Amino acid sequence: MSLLGLYRPGTTWVHRMPVGAKLSGLAVLGIAVTVVRGPLSALAFLMLSVAIAAAGRIGVRRSLRTLRSLLVVLVLLGGYQWWQRGWPVAVEVVADLVCLVLAATVVTATTPMDALLDAFVRACRPLRRLGANPDRIGLAMALMVRAVPGLLDIARETRDAAKARGLERNPRALLVPMTLRTVGRARTTGEALAARGIGDE
């Protein structure tokens, strides 16, 4: 199962929450982890995400599988922060990232994707007065949501390939292939949209 994985029907209170409440809660959590600093606060927010995931019956195995997809990013980011700013900042940054990823996974696992996208498009309707197209924004959001699991699969495959060559500790062996494949995926998506006449207006 990839990051922000498939919807799993259920009857928990997390499943029954309105879509708007879930998205608002996710936004508030994102602001909170940005404003409140310190490793202890970051770990507290992480425990909150873990508790909500447990309430939504996401499952330990599924959560670990999601985070495993982020392993390369977490290791590189945590190592860089430790080197530049010390271990407390490294713990804070990694815990904040895991917290938000887990919270986003809870939202997508307990809410049908169509409902999420419809809520996002409705929220963007006031932007129509500024000349924006809410439906096009919704399409961009849908593409982004569907792209994230693919990009994490690329990261995992790149890591496995580097490990098979004994280069798992070489940043270049990870970053260069991952960047090239990511750019290639973006170009393929753009060409597919252009072939359907999307974006020509």
UniProtKB/TrEMBL annotation:
Primary localization = membrane
Membrane-traversing stretches: 26-54, 66-83
- A GO cellular component entry from the record: plasma membrane
Q: Does the keyword Ligase belong to this entry? A: no
Provide the alphabetized UniProt keywords: Membrane, Transmembrane, Transmembrane helix
Question: What membrane topology does this protein have?
Answer: Multi-pass membrane protein
Q: Which InterPro entries match?
A: ABC/ECF_trnsptr_transmembrane (IPR003339)
Name a Pfam family for this protein. Answer: CbiQ
Q: Where in the cell is it found?
A: Membrane
Q: What is the protein name given in its UniProt record?
A: Energy-coupling factor transporter transmembrane protein EcfT
State the organism named in the record: Solicola gregarius
